[in-house]
Amino acid sequence: MCMVIFAPLFAIFAFATCGGYSGGLRLSVDCANKSESDLSIDIAFAYPFRLHQVNFDAPTCEGKRRETLSLIGDFSSSAEFFVTIAVFAFLYSLAATVVYIFFQNKYRENNRGPLIDFIVTVVFSFLWLVGSSAWAKGLSDVKIATDPGEVLLLMSACKQQSNKCLPVRSPVMSSLNTSVVFGFLNFILWAGNIWFVFKETGWHSSGQRHPPDTMEKQSSSYNQGGYNQDNYGPTGGYNQPAGFGQQANYGQVGEYGQQQSYSQSGPTSFANQI
Question: How far apart are the first and last CA of the chain?
Answer without folding.
Answer: 113
